[in-house]
Amino acid sequence: VQLVESGGGLVQAGGSLRLSCAASGNTFTISAMGWYRQAPGKQRELVASITSGTETTNYADSVKGRFTISRDNAKNTMYLQMNSLKPEDTAVYYCHAQRMVITTTGSYEYDYWGQGTQVTVSS
What is the DSSP letter of 32? Predict the structure, then answer.
């Protein structure tokens, strides 16, 4: 699975951005996708995730009510709509996909990451 992010940039506080993550390869076995972010000097953290099938979503408390994760299965693309951006949202945002493969010997999970896209929110 290959993941390519786009849509990052510089925005003023209170503004909006939409990130996109295009997936290619063995996308039919992807079980969940998500967005993570990493600010300078901090650990990478989960921002939002969405499962395949039921499309159950999950958000970090810090972005609830401001960010919306979605996916377009026909385009193999996931999105993150970010509204009411704050300076503390500044980070490199990474697309993540988890693929599950079930064989006769068991089930195996594989993780894939995009290259990251910078989001900078000025005050």
Answer: E
Strand partners, 100: 109
- Residue 89 tokens, joined: 């949202």
Q: Structure tokens of 64? A: 């609830």
Question: Which residues contact residue 72 at a Cβ distance below 8 angstroms, ignoring those fewer than 6 apart?
Answer: 78, 79
Task: Give tens-digit pLDDT for 33-73.
Answer: 999 999 999 999 999 999 988 899 999 999 999 999 999 98
Grouping H, G, I as helix, E, B as strand and the rest as coil, residue 90 is coil
CB atoms within 10 A of CB 81: 15
Question: Six-digit token pair at 36?
Answer: 């993570």
Rounded-to-integer distance, Cα 47 and Cα 60, Å: 5
Rg of the chain on CA atoms, in Å: 15
Give the C-alpha separation, 26 to 12, whole Å.
37
117-122 and 9-12 beta bridge pairing:
parallel
Tokens of 55: 């499309």
